[in-house]
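In this section we walk through a basic example: taking a raw amino acid sequence and producing a predicted 3D structure, encoded as discrete structure tokens. The instruction is simple. Fold the sequence below.
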Amino acid sequence: MAFKKDVPEIIEPRDVFVGNPKADVTLEEFGEYESDVCAKANEIVKQLLEDYDGKIRFNFRHFPLTKIHQRSLKASEAAVATAQEGKFWEMHNTLFANRRNLGTTSLKLHSKEAGVKNKRFLDDLVNATYGWQVQGDLKEGIDRGVKDVPTFFVNGTLVTKPTYEELSKAIETALKKTKKKAPAKQKAKA
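The resulting token sequence is shown next.
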């Protein structure tokens, strides 16, 4: 009798959120870890998460531009690997802080800094265990018209300029839309 090998379920990048996981407004970014522009955008995201504390959730999707940044793919895989232990945000920020140092061995060190305990982390990177998840993000980004990083969406609507002002305006608009919908739901329950 053959035994089925237990395959652990992988937490997909689209299911990893920072902020209020039940928030009605989702800020989504397609980006990569070697990009200076994405690193600057990450600072804007941190500020938005602080300013809209409890009102938004953030989802980072991987869009490595491997023709320009050869190490961005493995860095994305490392981020997905750390998400499996609930350490995505810690690793995400560590990767941006060390974006000039993203070789495979360095990624292992960065994962320890982020608090990852997985002893197979390096093996997972070498074997591209999370490569399909990164490729899935890349494909979805292309399907949604992403051509460059960072590209932001608020509740699925493209934000053309990744500035604090434009993202904040889009979040405010989305919050107003969700408030308009809430009373209708309450009336329906009555």
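Looking at the output, two observations stand out. The longest helix spans residues 164-189. Helices lie at 36-51, 72-83, 88-97, 104-113, 121-126, 131-143, 164-189. In the next section we compare this with other chains.
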